[in-house]
Amino acid sequence: MLKCIIVDDESLARKLLEANVKQLPFLDLVATCKNPFEAMQILQENQVDLIFLDIQMPGMLGTKFLQGLIEKPMIIFVTAYDKYAVESYELDVIDYLMKPVSMERFTKACYKAVEEKQKKTALSQPQIVNKTTTHEEGVFFVNADYALVKVVVESITHIESMKDYVKIYTDKASKPIITKSTLKGIEEKLTSSKFMKVHKSFIINLDKIESIRSQVISIGAHLIPVSDVNAESLMSVLSQMK
Q: Which pLDDT tens digit goes with each residue over 65-83?
């Protein structure tokens, strides 16, 4: 969850941004502010991850407000002016949105903020990650649901690739763990011989197979295809299992 505030001197702009924020479940709106001075007070009293910040405001430019912050939350500029674009990127902001902002563009910018927070979280806890991702302990951690989530290797039933993401199914939860990774990246964490790639998009835990029919594996309610190139190897491995 990202705690955020909106800073804009225009009432309509604040209302439109607030409506957009409420459509994204991972955003928690702490406050809306008419000017940077109200925002300063909010920042003193609350932990804020992200600011949707206008630039051209009476009294203080949004860029000057940002430069004056000692502890800087992530910033997404939302402005009607394109002349500050170069300066904004020198300030290392997440994104620069031009009004009127479409929901699609707004969502894309917010996902950038989510990914940035996940990176910072992972970097701030290197001892935990290094300790718990050893193969001997049988667990590893992935970024999912805006947190580091522990995966117990022996609980994995199968893994499915979806472009830049993978779904990790376990017998401990009804829903899969979804994380940004490649299938190869997760495969490298699985040193056990119980796991086998049976399709370009699937890795399965051999111990979890319930049945195989016409090159389709059943694991619980899931049906997993076996590619022609992997079918013979799979049958050979299964014939040696006792």
A: 999 998 899 999 999 988 8
Q: Is domain 2-124 in CATH 3.40.50.2300, yes or no?
A: yes
Mean pLDDT of 187-212: 91
| CB-based contacts of 33, cutoff 8 Å, min separation 6 | 5, 6, 7, 8, 39, 42
Question: Which amino acid type is present at position 189?
Answer: K
2.40.50.1020, 3.90.1170.20, 2.60.40.420, 1.10.10.10: which CATH number matches 128-240? 2.40.50.1020
Angle in degrees, CA 152, 158, 163, rounded to 5: 105
Count Cβ atoms within 10 A of the Cβ of residue 239 and give its class: 0-12 exposed, 13-18 middle, 19 or more buried: exposed
Q: Is the pTM of this model over 0.70?
A: no
Shortest CA distance to 222 belongs to which of 153, 170, 146? Answer: 170
